[in-house]
Amino acid sequence: NADTAMYRAKDAGRNNYQFYAQDMNARAMDRLTLESGLRRALERKEFILYYQPKVNLVSGEIEGMEALLRWQPPGQKMVSPLDFIPIAEETGLIVPIGEWVLRTACAQYAAWKNAGVNVCRIAVNLSARQFMQQNLVEVVSRVLHETECDAAGLELEITESIIMENPDAAVETLRTLSNMGIKLAIDDFGTGYSSLSYLKRFPIGYLKIDQSFVRDITTDADDAAIATAVIALAHSMKLQVIAEGVETAEQLQFLRDHNCDQMQGYFFSPPLPAEQVVKLLKEGRGLWSS
Ligand code: C2E
Ligand code: MG
Ligand code: MG
Ligand code: MG
């Protein structure tokens, strides 16, 4: 059970968060089992959202939460999105699943806000197929309206490869979303093709440096150079930079020294179930206090 795994990891201390993450990868499940299970998972309410804080590297305060999808088939280990999102994408199941994620995250945000819990913003990941849906803007507006979630409270994360697949159509969609007041972030930056000239045309607010560059940032000169360059590039374009996958104090220090704006990672907190987010926020925990 998810929560038990979480508490176990927490009890054992921060270093064990990684075990928890590995625990979750049910790589043993074969593709057919995954696919037929996925088809029924929505109606059986087997999906859960976890939330991972985004923390400001100057103030140390939480500035948002990223919703991360989990699948908990009954009696089995939790399945990682890395294992089922590609299949959901191929089969088209990602469209209803993605809408469920958006709706659940917006409803959670609105509920937290009503309860006086301030999470600043909620970030939702969009898949390629979802982003290319003709009615994406319509779905997003409808969900915001129905959940009474403020558009300014929503951030959408899209990878650069999704945008580059059809940059002209993408820029149109992104402009519409941005005009609605929604914040936009490029996820996994550095792992796909990017055309900097296009990047300039996109109304995005944030670049997220992929965790593959953060992992060895203090020991690998190339990774350090890439991260430093991304931060400089982003700042010259008036974008903020979020580093993903920050696990150590040394990585954190490097990122602060190089003026990175925000971080996410096990060093501060792994993705948490909603109840634990409330606990974290009520404790008022930030980077420089705990
Ligand atoms: P992502 O959006 O880049 O999310 C970051 C991933 O890094 C998450 O994995 C998170 O749990 C993990 N992570 C966070 N901090 C650390 C750390 O310090 N160290 C390490 N090693 N990992 C860390 P997760 O939750 O397994 O999600 C994997 C990917 O699946 C996400 O990458 C995203 O691309 C996709 N995904 C997750 N939820 C959704 C969703 O609702 N919709 C769509 N379309 N994709 C999703
Ligand atoms: Mg993301
Ligand atoms: Mg990412
Ligand atoms: Mg990533």
Automatic annotation (TrEMBL):
GO MF entry, a single one: oxygen binding
Protein's UniProt name: Diguanylate cyclase DosC
GO term, biological process aspect, one: regulation of DNA-templated transcription
High-level lineage: Bacteria, Pseudomonadati, Pseudomonadota, Betaproteobacteria, Nitrosomonadales
EAL domain boundaries: 31-285
Residues of the full protein shown: 694 to 983 of 983
